[in-house]
Amino acid sequence: MKKILTRMGDGERMEMNLDELREELLEGTLDAARRGKIPALSQDELDCLFDIFVQSNKIVSVEPGNEVVLTHDIGTLRVMGDQANSGVGIPLSRIQGILVHERAFGADTMELGHIDYSFKPVKPIISMEQQEMENALLCTIIPLFYGAMPNLGTYYRPDGPFGNPSDLLPLGKIKEAREAQEEAVEHAVRDMIYIGKKMSAVGADGLNFDTTGAAGDADFKATLHAIEELKKTTDLTIEVGMAGEFVLGIHGGFEYEGQRLAGLYPHQQVKLVQKAGADIFGPVVNTNTSKSMPWNLARAVTFVKACVEASEIPIHVNMGMGVGGSPVFETPPIDSVTRASKAMVEIAKVDGL
Amino acid sequence: MPIAHMMAAGMGGIRAAGDLVARMQMSRKMRIREAKAYVAEKLKVSPADLSNEHVMREVREDLDIGIITSVPGSAKGIEAKARIAQLLDIEINSVKRLMEKIK
Description:
B: mainly alpha
């Protein structure tokens, strides 16, 4: 029987026969359907995915006319940053990095971000960031976001002033852990609004909240409240990119507009994000390194398709390393990455990546 | 890796009309089809032409809204954005700021 070359979720190459491929695709979509309580992919959609994987070319692409737009996270750190920032260590300035994206890479939009890519560290040096944004806006044509992570972890000891839930919870101090998160939310909201308003004042096109929910439901709650205020008081486009496929209930009791945040999947997350007023939503589906890429991609497309259908705002699916059907590998193999791109655009019907 | 996504599925930014379609998603929350239809109408091209570099290079040059190669005299940076804002009938924050500064 014919075999295809594909990969595991960690990027390792493997072979699979066509029956195994069909089985993996079906199991992947059923896993998403069961967890998210959403429809599995139809037979037609599974057949499209099958066709994508059996193509013998290394690189695949969308059909002409189906192209979408891309927004970015991490700013220019992917060029001048170190490995920890997924960077390749080319010593460019941030403005040079943005221009390289605009003029050499064909980026539709771009992002300016601080080397310490969280909101809290930006606050004391905001005028430096404003200055950089001002200069970048004068010499660029494509839309420019300012990006940072809510990263509530920076508000907990030892980096911040509040008790650390990771230390308190194992000691059974649930009440203290919750109180620490509640205090951190208040401060994070204040800081994110401050930074957003400063960026708006210098003419930034938008603000990107990257890896929202990374520190659990408190992180998500803080972001939603910051968005509310920024949409009322500025002209910024707000993009929200998530950290994981469901919101961890580290606090467990946080709600927004009567909806508990813990345990929400992308098709539920987007409802709250658009209620808060955001303009673009970036869902995440995590790649399982113990499963094949066909399994992972079928699963990811199932979740994202449900999110696209539930949304009234553009969906730009996160497709960096380890998410959105991309392998968990520092240099994700292009055969997997391009198959994921095509599937997300032509089956999940995303508005962008 | 973003380059792989751009080549496989992206509109190509100012090589074509990717920045313009992105601006409609950003300023009016338009979904991809709606954003392409809007921009296509403003540029008087078909939605399929928006990702065709052969068409869009000439359109962008004629409208002077920024092109990917550096041609002396062609609109760059904030100049191009000012023309894009007029063309698409949208507000661009940095252009608005410039207008306020020179009032």
